[in-house]
Amino acid sequence: MIVMKFGGTSVANFEAITRTIFIIGGKLDQKPVVVVSALSKVTDLLYRISDAAASRNVSEMEELLFQLRKRHVDLASDLLEQSPMLKESAVAKVNEICDGLTSLVRAVCAVGELSDRNKAVIIANGEYLSSTIICYAMNSKGIRTNWIDARRMMITKGEYMKGEPVEKEILSRVPGIVEEAYKGMDAVITQGFIASTIDGEPTVLGRGGSDYSASLIGMAVDASRIEIWTDVDGVRTADPRKVNNTKYLEKISFEEAAEMAHFGAKVLHPLTIEPAVKKNIPIYVLNSMNPSGKGTAILRNELIEDGVKSVSFKENIKVINIFSTRMINTSGFLRRVFEIFSESRVSVDLISTSEANISVTVDASEKIDGVVSELSEFCDVIVDDDKAQVSVIGKNIVRLNGMLKKTFAPLKKCNVYMISQGASFVNISFVVDREELSEVVQDLHDHLFDNPEELADF
Predict the structure, then answer these.
(1) End-of-domain residue from the set 231, 254, 278
(2) 44: domain CATH number?
(3) What pTM was computed for the model?
(4) How many domains, in total, are found in the chain?
């Protein structure tokens, strides 16, 4: 059994879905469990609908609801044009889902208050709509396909908008549900991103959570492989939208992939790797627009060579500098500092410490006023805005001779505010001014990947 996850661009329109169904059709002998995202840009549209309802902007809300319904009805009609009965049924189902959404959104608008629970319900509709339409389209192409509601399988703890999976429940539920759904079928399809609590309360896994859903399902069914189908030919040495002359990576380790995802690479959700690692399931990142391409294999560590694999980055971060002489020769000080971050649910990326200083980086979107206020009661705190984080990632790079010199050689003209060398030997990260990020990343990438003579000493 394999798990095949298709992202929004792979199910964006008639042509994309037709390609996706062709790809799935070629894997039926491997019993695919298909996981789909919402159509491209639909989740953003649903966020806009929820915001319009909360602000009681009735005209905008109704216009956006109309756009959502029309796009999906038109798509279902086009895909099922040659199957009138299935077309009628699919359009009816799309309208049923849109009717339920419209009722909820109008109720939210009437009250003028949007709870996290209702927001989770609203934004989940993109996956319900896409998976329903694709299920009908697969059946119309002769692929007998059963639809599974992901809420029956993906069980999380209680936070509505960023549910934390309960692995014990997922491992218990998924195999039986999938096996039952497969009876008499060629494939099954479900939704990424969507989940529920054990009591049936709706939750979602957070933005980009469809990859995570696929990996959790793969772990639960002991899949032979997990395929993440997107719109790029696998993983590259940097984001090709920001960096010129990036290189294709044939294979990387689980650890390298996790670091890339965490430190800014856009190909995978940061949490995708962990479930696959637990069962040693290889992950393949593939391009639905180029199905014959090899993509990138993400494999266990011993199958991967040492060396630099990528330059990743986060474009907009804050650096929080904490100073106190109380740190010196005092036990428990660090624990107190990081308890404040934890209690405020602020996620820290990089950490650098000295005898009286702690510097940490956080994403610019994090709400840190409460953290700064509490820390300021016993520390001096300075927050530097408009910074960017750059990470050089690869297996055992910290042990490579001259790696630090090679990393910082292209950076002579810019200020480096913080350096963090990972204890895992997988990354070296540093902080620069945001306005210099593009030049820094391009120069660093060129230096590491376009000068083979420079790398010969590695």
Answers:
(1) 231
(2) 3.40.1160.10
(3) 0.88
(4) 2
